[in-house]
Fold this protein.
Amino acid sequence: MQKAGTLRERESTPEFETTFYGHIDLPFLLLMLSISVIGLIMMFSSSYASAVQNDLPPTYYLMRQGGFFLFGLLAMWLLTMLNYQVYKVLAPVIFFGTAILLALVLVAGEKRNGARRWFKIGFEFQPSELAKLAIVIVFATMIVVLGRRMEQFKYGVLPFGIVLMTFCGLVLLEPHLSGAIIIGVVGMVMMFVGGVKKRYFAFLFALGALAGVLAWKFMPHVQRRIAVWHNPFADAQGDGYQPIQSLLAIGPGGLFGLGLGQSRQKFSSLPERHNDYIFSVVCEEIGFIGAMLIIVLFVMLIARGYWIALQTRDRFGSLLVCGIMTLLATQTALNIGVVTNLLPATGVSMPFFSYGGTALLIQLAEMGIVLNISKFIPAKKAG
C-alpha cells in the first residue's frame, strides 16, 4: 500500500468526491471530551466565588457555559456529517462575512475596558474567535487552488498577505493583540506547509520584526506590557498586579494542590479567575501534577490531530486539520505562558477551560471538522 505523502506533496481530491472509509477517530474524540469535562469542572470551581460576590447563583457561570457546551456538542455532531469539501465552496463567503463582522464590531460592538470586541445579542459573540477558524478555511482553500504556484512570490505571498493583513489589521483595531498574534501564527504555519519557499519567510519575518519595532515605539501599552513582564513587582498595584496574583496562586499549589474548590486567590485577589487566568486556579487546586496531566492531555490531543492530518487522503483535508491543530496548540501555549509569566500578558483564553460561550462553541465546531475528516482515513491506517 502506498504511504501517505506529506501535506505539500498530496494532491487534493475533486470537490465532493471523497470516499467514506470508517468511523470518526475514537482516541481524538475521547481526548477532546476528557479535556472538555475537566475544563467545565475547573471553570465551575474558579467561577462560583465570582458568582456569589456578584449576587448570582453559585452555578450561574456553569449553567451558561454548560449550555454552550451542549450546543457545541450538537454543532460538532452535525459537522461530522457534513462533507468537508463544501468549505472550499464557502471560503469566499466565509472570508467576506468574517471581514464584515470584524469591521462592524468596531462601530457597533460593546465597549469594555477600552476595547470593542463583542456583539451583545442575548449572549456575547466575539467575531475574532470566528476569524481564527476563517483563516484556516480560507488559507486551505487558497493553497489547494494555487497548487504549485505557491512557490512564486506573487501567488504564495501576496494574496495570503492581503488576507492576513485584513484580518489582523481589523482585530488589532479592536484592539485584540492576542487574537492578531494567533491569526498571524496560524496563517504563517499554513503558508509554510502549503509550499511557500523559505527565502520568502525571511522577508515576512523582516516585516514582522519591523511591525514589532513600530509597535514598541508608537504603542505605549506594548512598552508597559514588556516592562511588567520583565519585572511585575515594579508596579505591584498597577499593571503588575494581575501577573503577581497569578504567580501567588500557582506557588501554594505545590505538587498536589490545595484540593479541588480550595483555591484562596479566586475569592478576592486574582482577576479574570474563570477566564484568561483559570490555569492559575488549576495549578493552585490540583497542583503541579494535576496541571501537568492536563498539559499532557492537550499534547496528546494535538499530536493525534496532526496524525490525522498526515493520514488524510487529500490535501485540503490535511490542511484543515493542520490549521485547526496549530490554532489549538498556539492558543494553549500562549495562555499557559502568560499565566506563568513566561510570556508578556496578551489576554488569551485557555481552550475548553476559560469562560466564554463563543470560544467554546467554535472550538467544539472545529473538533467536529477534524472528526469529520478523520472518517476518510483508510481503515488500516486508523489505529
